[in-house]
Amino acid sequence: MGQRTAGGGDTLSVSRREELRARVVERIDFSRETSDEEVSGLIDDVIMEAAAESCLTVSERKQLHRELFHSIRRLDILEELLQDPEVTEIMVNGPSAVFLERAGRIERCPGGFVSEQRLGDIVQTIVADCDRTVNAASPIADARLRDGSRVNVVLPPVSLCGPVLTIRRFPKTPLSMEDLLRMGALSPEVKDLLADCVRAGLNIFISGGTGAGKTTFLSALCAYIDPGERVITIEDNAELQIPGIEDLVRLEARSAREEGCSAVTIRDMIRASLRMRPDRIIVGEVRGPEAIDMLQAMNTGHDGSMSTGHANSARDMMSRLETMVLMGAVDLPLGAIRGQIGSALDIVVFLGRLRDRSRKLLEVAQVLGTERGEIRMHTLYRFTEKGVSDGKITGDWEKVEDIVVTDKMRLAGVAFDGSGRSEVSAACSAL
Length: 431
Known about the structure:
Residues 1-10 and 418-431 have low confidence and may be disordered. The longest helix has 18 residues, at 36-53. A hairpin with a 5-residue loop joins strand 12 and strand 13 (359-371). The protein has helices spanning 14-27, 36-53, 58-73, 78-82, 116-129, 177-182, 188-199, 214-221, 266-273, 290-298, 314-328, 334-344, 407-412, 426-429; strands at residues 87-93, 98-102, 105-109, 140-144, 150-154, 164-168, 204-208, 231-235, 248-252, 280-283, 306-310, 347-353, 359-371, 374-389, 392-399, 414-416, 422-424. By secondary structure, it is of the alpha/beta class. The strands form three sheets. The chain has a nine-stranded mixed sheet, sandwiched between helices. A six-stranded antiparallel sheet has the order 3-2-1-6-5-4. Strands 16-17 form a two-stranded antiparallel ribbon. Helix 2 packs across helix 3 (58-73), helix 9 runs parallel beside helix 10 and helix 10 (290-298) packs across helix 12. The radius of gyration is 25 Å and the shape is elongated. It contains 14 helices and 17 strands. It has three domains: 1-73; 77-169, 2-Layer Sandwich (Beta-Lactamase), CATH 3.30.450.370; 177-429, 3-Layer(aba) Sandwich (Rossmann fold).
């Protein structure tokens, strides 16, 4: 199988390019560490020899050098896609089908990997770099790139089209709440409300569908945490970008290894974090029985903790949390579970991806405990569509109800007037 690599010309055939690559690899001294500069020099030598045999222009030599270097020391054809800031997602469906998402739209990338084995080598390079294992016996794995991009891998025999690789990219510079405001993801009034909720130490849960921007939004909210607090982040794959916190502990889950290393789960890390004197615990995402541990942490004095989860609405997130808790505490009565959720959470944010591909905050709801066995919630703000302008959905964030001021808010020094805008006391403003 041979696919022309993305961006390559037609002067040299795929087989010829592979022959040149083999020449370079033969000249690398694997008995010692070889620098990128040395490999680049070997590639130049091989290209000069090839130029004597083939008519290559200067631009073709540069492109060939780039392709050979990326295939030997980087991630092959994925490298140029990863260097494109407009590419937000890369989807590889086997060696000959590479797709990317740019500006919210999916397009096919010309070319592909020269073989399934080459793609398999790239997959192993990625997972090994973050101490993960994926093979035929364990064909599904989550990993991350050095730049923080999220990676999911599915190998045969589960995948019928060869190795499947999905890379979710994040901005090199994390988006701030001001950036999200400029992008029209929320309104100034909602931003101010959520900022004060973080400063006041309210427990916040961010919900939404796949690709709604939950991780980005969580990172942006963390900017309002007091820089002097001790924060512990817990994730399957370390993706959160939280600048400005000096006392920051980042924990990452680990899967079981064939060498005998046992798995370290989200539940394990939440329990361990309680003994690490945290001011706040940030759980990247809950999707299973770790939900009960997260809720218990929120209910044991770790105010200001935050997490994310998949759901179709703020109310639906409560039902999903009930289901996740039952995964880890089958014998716990439903009333007790709802009591845990109602007392642990203060604010639920729901994000969505609209049909114009934009990501917006669609709802902010307050959790007010339980009443007659049901979790009490009321909506504070909701996004309402007004129309479409230049292909973009327009609308407003309408205030639905005033926030109910709780004892926790009063103790934090946050007061709310009748307009719904908050006034933070001098003590809280200093945070």
